[in-house]
Amino acid sequence: MKFVGISGSIVGSKTKIAVEYSLNLIQKRYSEVETVHLHLGDLNIEFCDGRDYRDYVGDTKYLIHQMMSADALIIGTPTFQASIPGTLKNVFDLLPEEALIDKVVGIIATAGSPKHYLMVEQQLKPILSYMKATIVQKYVFIEDKDYIKKEITNNDVLSRLNRLVEDVYDTYNSVQFMKKEFA
């Protein structure tokens, strides 16, 4: 079983901190799960130019392979201009339409204020749905005020991240059970 966490921006640290926290929880709780963290700031990702996803090389090929070989994803995204960052949108553009079929996806969104909480509902979830992902409906929204010195300090946020990890794991296992039962 493989869970991949994506920090969907090349700048800032808040989203990366939340995704790393979640992946660490997974490693502590579920020893059978392999985790991979893809921080877009650490990778040299090409812009999507319309070629077949199998024709990309280097970090872009690595990113595509990791996402498509994952059983579940935790996608972290900051909110830029009331939207997902262009770097994250580019990642989705690189993938084929059904790249996320049968993959369970949990979402973490960070923002400077509560005004942008609907970005996940209006932009990210429709993209994931189009790509056939199984979306964990309750996502974690984290504001700047929930961090102090690059650490999440809001206990409610930490509790919700714990719950998200459990929900992703449980949803993955439920999907696998249903596939076996109705195959």
TrEMBL record:
Listed PANTHER family: FMN REDUCTASE (NADPH)
Pfam family, one: FMN_red
Name of this chain's protein: NAD(P)H-dependent oxidoreductase
Positions of the NADPH-dependent FMN reductase-like domain: 1-142
Keywords: Flavoprotein, FMN, Oxidoreductase
Signal peptide residues on this chain, from the entry's feature table: none
Native source organism of the sequence: Pallidibacillus thermolactis
